[in-house]
Amino acid sequence: MAAHLQEAKKVVLDYHEALGAACRARDATTGDIAEALGAGVSEDYLWRGMHPFYEQRGVQAVAEVFWQPLVRAMAPLQRRCDVFFAGANDVDDGATTWVCSMGHLMGLFDGPWLDMPPTRRVALLRYAEFSRVADGRIAETAMFCDLLSVMRQAGQFPLPPPTGQPGFYVGPRTGDGLLYDEQDPAEGKATLALARRMAEDLSEANRIARESGEDRLPHEVLARCWHDDMLWVGPDGIGASYTIERYRQQHSLPFRFGLTDKEFHGHVARLAEGRYAAWFGWANVSHRPRGGFLGLPASGPAEMRVVDVYRREGDKLADNWVFIDLLHWLSQQGLEPLDRMRHLLGIKEF
To answer: How many CB atoms lie within 10 A of CB 95?
Structure first.
């Protein structure tokens, strides 16, 4: 299995190199980028992106919808990776192999992107990318990126103040997130087991809350699987929190109180290697906002597409990086922050 994972990593690293070369020039065409993508992905390539990109099929569509407009706005585009690992998919009992890459895409924000005004300064697009590798090629990608953070960098942030610290990102404290070499399989199994146990604790807490009517998440429940000085890095709009207690105050309780009728829908991929684990869903969970979450009023049912990336330290989790397609979640409630920005900039009429 270790050799198989190393082969999958090489496929993704080669893809990163080829795509990176095509993304250095602002005048790179859709064809240039499609050619670079085609060197590493399958003919029936499926790409999942956040709102407003959604699902795309084939290299031409992916290049045209996502990569070429981003390159035109921010070249030379550079990938700066903080976490990189591979694993057999726990969702399908290891039938598929996935590679997780997380960090930033960095460039000079010299042109408009999604009508966000350029800043002529360096910009960081935080991302988590999941790649399913089959027969020596990438057959499927899920690309989560924090568009709200770029809106903030452009001075166009559309939401009320977040409960956590916005614009905050750090990689692993231990600096060991790039797992280019083979890892002990037992370490990955321990990491995934711990992450799953943590998720089961939360599910148990949700069940008790429904039955008792007391929607609390005690510190001791979180402390079963988390270090007291854990770091939770959420998407812009929610922000980051440090320590269990601040995480409870700044994200966990607002999430629990502000969203009700939660229903979990499972994951597309769930993997681990060494002391790192990750999963994502499409969508993971549905619920009904009852007012307060993100400082917004109550509304009808909505779904969330969520990524979690974890770092284990000893027998507990220490870091959790989270991506949520908040623009998609908001769009289901009739809120379009990108359109509101366009209205305020005079690009689009009300």
So the answer is: 8
